[in-house]
């Protein structure tokens, strides 16, 4: 589990391609302080397992499903990636609940500065749009952000100077692909409202129930 608060930007020092799979070697500093084999690290929002490390870098395997569903296959030597260690139980919860399981990729359509903020319009897969609401949460390349608008199959996000400087999003622009994770809570609510409970009896949770109990 992660929070979407990026700890540092890592650099890809090596990539080993294996058909629709990869082995990534990522140079980092902050995440190396307490790293161990089997630890979970968010790499551009993708939860990956540490398979090896030394004083300056960590290795990760990317399986075919992750290769196909994320933007990791666009990485090359020298690419920058957002890094975050799994959330500590005794730490502050600065972002929102982030699983590191990518729901799809989006494309940056526009990038526009307004005062101290930079607004991005992202074009997303149509099936993801129902999960987003104005002022709701979205994870973009592992960064916890707020949705400021939903229009058709596009959502608007805004980055402050700190986020522009300390995440890979600051260096991205129109045409670039980003990893998207929708708000975990919205996924579960939609799941129960559909009554898809994996062979369990159909849930009695409904829009009327949520309204009567003050949730909507």
TrEMBL record:
Residues 1-96, 97-193 form the Lumazine-binding domain. Lumazine-binding repeats lie at residues 1-96, 97-193. InterPro entries: ATP_synth_asu-like_sf, Lumazine-bd, Lumazine-bd_dom, Riboflavin_synthase-like_b-brl. Pathway: Cofactor biosynthesis; riboflavin biosynthesis; riboflavin from 2-hydroxy-3-oxobutyl phosphate and 5-amino-6-(D-ribitylamino)uracil: step 2/2. The keyword NAD does not apply. Pfam families: Lum_binding. GO terms for molecular function: riboflavin synthase activity. Catalyzes the dismutation of two molecules of 6,7-dimethyl-8-ribityllumazine, resulting in the formation of riboflavin and 5-amino-6-(D-ribitylamino)uracil. This is Riboflavin synthase. It comes from Halobacillus salinarum.
């Amino acid at each position: 589990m992660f929070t979407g608060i990026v700890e540092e930007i890592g650099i890809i020092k090596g990539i080993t391609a294996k058909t629709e799979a990869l082995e990534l070697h990522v140079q980092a500093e902050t995440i190396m302080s307490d790293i161990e084999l089997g630890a979970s690290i968010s790499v551009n929002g993708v939860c990956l397992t540490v398979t090896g490390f030394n004083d300056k870098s960590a290795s990760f395997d990317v399986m075919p499903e992750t290769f196909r569903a994320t933007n990791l296959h666009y990485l090359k030597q020298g690419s920058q990636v957002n890094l975050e260690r799994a959330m500590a139980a005794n730490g502050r919860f600065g972002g929102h609940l982030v699983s590191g399981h990518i729901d799809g990729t989006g494309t940056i359509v526009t990038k526009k500065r307004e005062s101290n903020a930079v607004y991005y319009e992202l074009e997303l897969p149509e099936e993801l749009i129902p999960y987003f609401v104005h002022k709701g949460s979205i994870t973009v390349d592992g960064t916890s952000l707020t949705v400021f608008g939903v229009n058709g199959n596009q959502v608007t996000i805004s980055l402050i100077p700190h986020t522009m400087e300390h995440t890979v999003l600051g260096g991205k622009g129109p045409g670039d692909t980003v990893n998207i994770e929708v708000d975990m809570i919205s996924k579960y609510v939609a799941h129960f409202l559909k009554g898809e409970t994996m062979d369990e009896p159909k849930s009695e949770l409904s829009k009327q129930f949520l309204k009567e109990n003050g949730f909507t």
